[in-house]
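Annex B, item 7. Sequence and structure tokens for protein A, then protein B.
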Amino acid sequence: MADFFIQALIQVSTPAVLALIIIGVLFGIIGGSIPGFTVTMAILVVFPFTFAMDPVSGVSLMVGVFVGGYSGGIVSGVMLGIPGTPSSITTVYDGYPMAQKGEPGRALGIGVAASFLGTLISVAVLVFFGPLIASFSMNFRPWEITALIVFALTLVAGLSNGALLKGLLAAVLGLLITTVGYDRNSNLRFDFGLPALSSGFEILPVMIGIFAFSQLMGNLEKLRDNGGSDGQGVDTGVAIPYRQIVRDMAGQKLNTLRSSLIGSLVGALPGTGGTVANFISYDQAKKFSRHPERFGTGTPDGIVASESSNSAVAGGAFIPTLALGIPGDLPMAIMMGVLILHGITPGPLMFEQNPVLVGAIYASLLIGAVIMVTCQLLLVRWFAKISLIPQQILVPVVLMLCAIGSYALNNNLFDIWVLFAFGILGYLLWKAGVPLTPLILGVVLGNNLERQLFRALELDSSWLTFLTRPLSALFLALAVVSVIFSLYQNRKIQRNQLKARGSDA
């Protein structure tokens, strides 16, 4: 392990790759600082620029955006009371009140320090547990991989904010999108007489359209509903009290460790991500606190729990992506797309066939964390100003970049039309309350699911084999349990809502 990590560190430490990591971190922080832009959108915008790069450079750039994006959400959360990313929602609970008390620099400093430590702890978890999971999953055959993908999709759908049926339908729709074009037996499917569809849809324009386009349109709609208000006029003059930050963090050792481990473990679950980790760690910090009544009033405990957990998701999310080929969350699905475009298939064999690239990811995470904390502390005043960019300016610029990136994939105008069509679809689904994460993960995992399913049936045509093999049966059972548990949760939420309405009446 030491040999390939040293080789990877040498490759990542070259001036060119270091510059890419710095650019990625800066862009990620900027993207996270702008309310509504999100980490995912920042990664989608950068994605096309990796096509002409070698795998180490491309992955290092994306890791930089990943690390910077998760820490950038604190800026608008503290300064505006608006989370820059969904994974920094609970940061607002204590960061904004602390800023309102006249201590915005302290709130930002605590958040940045917690993000840095959370990333380091998550990298340690990745280094120790990633290879172990990969070694264990070497025993997986097509039946186990198929069942694992089904379980991942049901788990994601089950976490779709009480919309289980919509989440499952979204996942199925994502799988159907991947069936367009030639199948493994060279049979043409669902081309509707259009030659451009014979090779299917490219992942990039589909993902950008479904998520970025629909998200930007939603931002404009919210802006219109708010009467055009975008938070201008906020005082962004801040200074970091370094000594105070050191004293604050010295009393947060257990909170930081607990929240970082929660973020790493939640990030390792397919389809969960920073938002889920955010709320769990904040809840646990409050339960373990000696002064739970201070939460929500500007206590450092809440900021540390929130920021260390969402940054720790970075390392944790890489575990299923690299070891199993199952994206840990939506940004990881895009990261997986980068690897696939470079001819690298994430999964158990990646640790044997591409150990230097795995080491480059470890090194990029560590270097990115150092760059992130340095940039945040030195440039926080400028990042605070960036958080005030009006949506009227932001939306057309980002849409233009998305269109350019989709066109650059194959120099094909059809990909722009794909982006536009799936953008409208994503916007309509968003309006209907259909979660988009299961849809995108269905698109990313669809081809692998089809390949593994047909391979399993070619080896043994009996469907009962999925139930007679212990691991595949376990994953299918977990998928059923996930759906049943989600149904139970949904009914419990509905009962509580009915009781609340009854008491109000």
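Protein B:
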Amino acid sequence: MKVLDKRHRIMALLFGLAILVSLGFWFSRGDVNGPNPAFAARSNFWADRRVAAALESGFEQADKAAELGQTASNADQWDQVVKAWTDAIATLQTIPAQSPERFFAQRKQQEYLQNLAFAQRQANQLSWPNVFPSLGSPVLDEQLRLYLSYLATFGPPDILVIGSSRTIQGINPQILQTDLETQGYPVRVFNFSINGATAQVMNFVLQRLLTSDQLPRLVIWGDGSRAFNSRRVDATFANILKSPGYRAVLAGEKPGFSNRASIPRPPSSINAYGFLPVADVFDPAAFYQTYPRISGRYDGFYNPFGLTGLQLGSLRSLVGYLKSRNIELVYVHLPLSGDYLDDFRLPLDQRFQRFLQTQSQRQGFAVIDLLLQWRQQNAFFADPSHLNQAGAASIAQQLARDPLVLEKLNALE
């Protein structure tokens, strides 16, 4: 009996030592943040084997991604990091919802998604295509590269939205496209708007920078009086004139993809269709605690003000060029907030309304005037003169149902 008790004690001791050795080996596979997850998944003898295999594979893919990220230095290498994090996330996503391991796996996926986003930013930053010398405007440079990539993917859009910063965040091309498709118009839409763009700038882009086979069948030009004020300094066009890209245009060069090395650039919020979504909602009480309230009388966009001169000449030149290419034009006078349309600006914008009607009759383009429709609806604005996402969606929906737009599309068929 004593021999049996002694044997039991020896077996218990050996079993305890085995557990301690196993635990020591387990923790030795870890790092400063704890045990290695993949090894822990293999060591859990109580788990469902399919779930354990998914956990092990996902954790190993994450280890690979982290390792690749330590040495990645160019876009191709960061693309590999992106793929590894994506694979890790996809593998953990296969764990059934009823599995007890699912909740832990979800939290690991949140961590991996943050790492994936970082890797994507690095890849995007290092893969800016060098298609043309700078044109003196970062947004124009970006929109040009994005549009050329869009052309390579789909060909020319049926509708090209153009304008200034008010348009880049004021007309959502995807919603316009979707709403037209639901009405039986299978069109593609791209927003090629540029911060600070005037009539001169848009005339240069469509007539001098792009080739005729890169143009759409219908142009929707969204903007307001500021783009046609010939008495103010056209800073955007002045920067274009001084740029190496403008000298390249004068030499006959056209933008296009080449074997030139990529240019590192920070990531942007402009989406794949040239649209800049802005979620801010204009609240005058909060807005003017951060920004000064500027009367129209002291606003350089309005004072001095004149609708004859270079901008009018550019409008006539562009309308004539589009007609020569059988391209229809619809001008959309975008809304402004009531807070912006003070006693000084409102009469000038009403003068611009009359100007638009006169020019549309003389030159033969359509006008959709939305200037005053949201004077008391700040929820559609990001600031006093720029629309937000909600406003951009609503404008797109309006345009998709506007008889003038549908008439132009019918004429193209």
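Comment on protein B: The radius of gyration is 30 Å.
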